[in-house]
Structures are given as C-alpha cells and as structure tokens.
Specification:
29% strand; alpha+beta; 5 strands; 2 helices; 3-stranded mixed sheet
Length: 85
C-alpha cells in the first residue's frame, strides 16, 4: 500500500461535493503530492456537522517500534552524558 496521494479538487469543489457545514482548513493550496507527516485536508463529523480541517497525514508507528527507537535514543544520551562526566 502506498501512503502518497494527491488532492486534485479545489476547496470549493470539496465543500460542494461533501456538503461541508464549516471550513476550518484556511486557504487550501493545490496539493499535487501529499506525503506522510504533511498536513492534509480531512472531513470530520463534529456536533452533527461536516467540518473541513487539516490534519497530519500518515500512520503512527507500531508501539514496539516507537518504544525501541526512543529507548535507543535514551541509551545514546546516557552514554554521551557518562562520557562527559
């Protein structure tokens, strides 16, 4: 599965197509390529209304991967601090 996509529709087309009640996306530029960790337009249901807003695109890493990476960073910092002492 590829996690890259694009948004070829204008903000007005999105609002009309999805019957948006509230637009919080600001001035939406053309988005020919939306990559992971970039902000992307999404439609949320809030208080019974459709809201167009911006959110970070991508999947969070699995907890074990996140934990292992943060543990490795912590171990490196401990080693650097120990070397300075």
């Amino acid at each position: 599965m590829c996690n890259l996509y694009s948004s070829a529709r204008s903000q007005d087309e999105i609002r009309h197509t999805f019957a948006i009640d509230r637009d919080e996306a600001g001035n939406l530029p053309p988005l020919p390529g939306i990559f992971p960790d970039q902000m992307s337009p999404v439609i949320l249901a809030a208080d019974g209304k459709r809201v167009l807003t911006m959110m970070r695109w991508g999947f969070p890493p699995p907890p074990k991967v996140w934990h292992a990476a943060s543990h490795q960073r912590a171990q490196r910092r401990i080693a650097v601090l120990a070397a300075l002492a």
